[in-house]
């Protein structure tokens, strides 16, 4: 069980805002942290890891207080049982695969743990190679295995798959899911890929400007509160042209240009260049496959 | 011609001791400076970098005053520790460490600053102490910077003249190092012996630099996986 309440003023060259978050995460839960870049997602992980200090707050993990600013408690990263996978992996360039895992092994721990993780992450055959000799996917698995050596109470993943191409991403999502089921650490996964969050996470928290917007199962949160047959798309008006008694609005949605007929009344508040929300009730939407499952185009 | 090898031996001893002390002093200092977030940091860096640009005789002059057993700091050293730092080998070592500090500090600090912060942070999250992180993670990845710092300080101490002359004088077997002996022989118009000292200093400096370049080529080809 992870309980956190954190407050920190965040300053960057562009913006300044307050990170103000309170969350409870069930043991063994894989919680996605979803939101635009600069929302404070990585900062949240760094605060949990003890690499940054909040202005005030409290972190309790399995009834162990890691941080309590009122009582002046703030454990250093070394004393928090965490596994952190950095966005750049932070692999040690001078150690081979096996040495990285053995380095992470706490004093007196069994070496079998290293062998088990090498096998689970399929790194056994390349255990004597250094990080520069590994592919992106192998480096990622090594970072993940290294973070798991200490049997962390809290596993923190900072966009762990963002540097990889789609096919490898899919395979590693599968691996990540399998490792999570095997060891069941309470996990926070920072991502801005909705597909990834949907596939991997039990719950997802949406964060924007340092605040929690909503939290719940991915199916509810990512599709807008609850699953339904209503489509909501955001678009930009490119043109408004009167034609007979109606007005044709040309709207850019994503990379697609669509034309929508509106009445003169409906068109009154619309302006060219303005943002609009397109709502549609779809009674039985059709889904046609474009790719096969492996991600290769048909 | 009888050659007095003592100044050469003294120079090598001074350079070795100085470089060893500098290593122990500059590595923690460089790490501290690399991680320091404070507005006054440039001030510290400027003070520590002074020996780089000061005429050695100026540095030697102030050190001579500071170490003089008749006043202030020098008197305190002599009274409490029984340490006499003027016209002694110990004095040469202390002066060389001060004069050589930026030669070790600069490359090592630059090396620390070039390492990604996540490297040390990853070690912390794996439960490793700061000391263990420094020794097992950071220093092995700083080998080129450490080598550069070591070689620069060694070569610089070997060639030091102004500071040594000011603080050590010219006492045979105690403070007469090779660069001073060379000056002596030229003054005495004893050119054959001057040639020997100069030649040996050139040979040592060249060898040291050659070793550095060879080892750098070796390590860069290893990094490419050859």
Structure description:
The complex is a heterodimer of chains A (about 300) and B (about 230). By secondary structure, chain A is α/β, with parallel strands linked by helices. Chain A contains 8 helices and 15 strands. Chain A has helices spanning about 40-50, 95-105, 110-120, 135-150, 165-185, 195-200, 220, 265; strands spanning about 1-10, 15-25, 30-35, 55-60, 65-70, 75, 80-85, 155-160, 185-190, 205-210, 210-215, 230-245, 245-255, 255-260, 275-280. A 6-stranded mixed beta sheet of chain A has the order 7-8-9-3-10-11, with helices on both faces. A 5-stranded antiparallel beta sheet of chain A has the order 2-1-4-5-6, covered by helices on one side. Chain A has a 4-stranded antiparallel beta sheet with strand order 14-13-12-15. In chain A, helix 2 packs parallel to helix 4 (about 135-150) and helix 4 (about 135-150) packs parallel to helix 5 (about 165-185). The model of chain B has no long low-confidence stretch (mean pLDDT about 90). The longest helix of chain B has about 35 residues, at about 190-225. Chains A and B meet through strand 7 of A and helix 6 of B.
- Reading the helices and strands of chain B in chain order gives HHHHHHHHHHH
Flag low-confidence runs of chain B.
none
Give a count of the beta strands of chain A, DSSP E runs of length 2 or more: 15
> What is the number of strand segments of chain B?
0
Helix content of chain B: over 70%
Quickly count the helices of chain B.
11
- What letter string, H or E per element, gives the SSE order of chain A? EEEHEEEEHHHEHEHEEHEEEHE
Please count the helical segments of chain A. Answer: 8
Interface with most residues: A-B, 27 and 18 residues
Taking all Cα atoms into account, the compactness measure Rg of chain A is 23 Å
Strand content of chain A: 25-35%
Multimeric status of the protein: heterodimer
- Name the helicity range of chain A: 10-25%
* Biggest sheet character of chain A: 6 strands, mixed
Structural class of chain A: alpha/beta
Distance between the termini of chain A: 45 Å
Shape estimate of chain B: globular
Largest sheet of chain B: none
Average pLDDT over all residues of chain B: 90
Spatial strand arrangement across the major sheet of chain A: 7-8-9-3-10-11
> Which structural class do you get from the secondary structure elements of chain B?
mainly alpha
